[in-house]
Amino acid sequence: MKVIAGLGNPGPEYKDTPHNVGFDVVALLAERLAADWRSSARFQARLARVERGGESWLLVQPQTFMNLSGTSVAPVLRYHGCGPADLVVVLDDADLPLGRLRIRSEGGSGGHRGLASVIEAVGTEAVARVRLGVGRRAGAVDDDLVAHVLGRFDPAQRETARRMVEAAADAVECLTERGMTEAMNRFNGWQAEPAGPAAGN
Q1: Which residues of 101-132 are buried (b: 16+ CB within 10 A; e: fewer)?
Q2: Which residues are catalytic?
C-alpha cells in the first residue's frame, strides 16, 4: 500500500489558502479516482482508499492541524503495516515561487512544521515529498509569512495555484506508479505559467 498524505488545516476558514494546497492535491486525486472520503476519529484524519494499477493507495488529510500532522500520519502507517518508504507527503513551500514544484526522496523539513512533525513521528528524513510553491513577499518576516500562507489567493494567484495542484497530482501519480527518478525528471522545477489578463483587457 502507498500512503499519500496531503498536509493542511481542517475547517472552512482554511479552505483555498496557500497552506492547504497539500489537501487540494489529495482531494483532486480522490476526485479523479472516484474515491469516497470517510472520517476516522482513531487516526484524526479523513481517509480515502482506492485501487490503482493493482496496488492500494490510501489518501490522507490529517485533521490535527498542520503542526501536528505526524500524530495522524504515523499511526496510519503503523496500522496498515506500512513504513516511511511507502509514504508520500504533499505540502506547500513558501521558499518556492508560486506555481513551482519540487520533488525529493528525503531531506530535512526546510522549516515546514507540518513536515517536521511527520519526520519526527516516523523517525526518519527518508520520506518522499512533493512540495508546491506558494511564494512569499520579498523581505517578509515570520508574521507576514503566517498571514500569507493562511490568507487567500487573489484570483490570478488562485488560477496559477489550480494549475500547480493539477500538475502535482500528476506528479504524485507518476511517483507512485513509475518511481522517484521518473517523477523527478518530469516534474522537478515544473512551473505553472501566471494567469494571463482577462479576455477583452
Answers
A1: bbbbbeeebbebebbbbbbebbeebebbbbbb
A2: 19
Confidence of residue 138 (pLDDT cuts 50, 70, 90): low
**Start-to-end Cα distance in the chain:** 49
Whole-number pLDDT of residue 53: 80
Q: Which domain holds residue 18?
A: 2-187
Among residues 143, 132, 144, 197, the alpha carbon closest in space to that of 170 is found at: 132
Residue in 37, 36, 33, 27 with CA at minimum distance from that of residue 6: 27
Q: How many domains does the chain have?
A: 1
Nearest to 160 by CA among 191, 121, 197, 129: 191
pLDDT tens per residue, range 46-85: 999 998 888 999 999 999 999 999 999 999 999 999 999 9
CATH number at residue 88: 3.40.50.1470
Distance CA 35, CA 29 (A): 8
Q: What is the amino acid identity at position 47?
A: L
85 belongs to a structural domain: yes
Over residues 74-109, the pLDDT tens digits come to 999 999 999 999 999 999 999 999 999 999 999 999
pTM: 0.92
Of 17, 12, 19, 24, nearest to 59 by C-alpha is 24
Q: Which of 2, 8, 4 is nearest to 129 (CA)?
A: 4
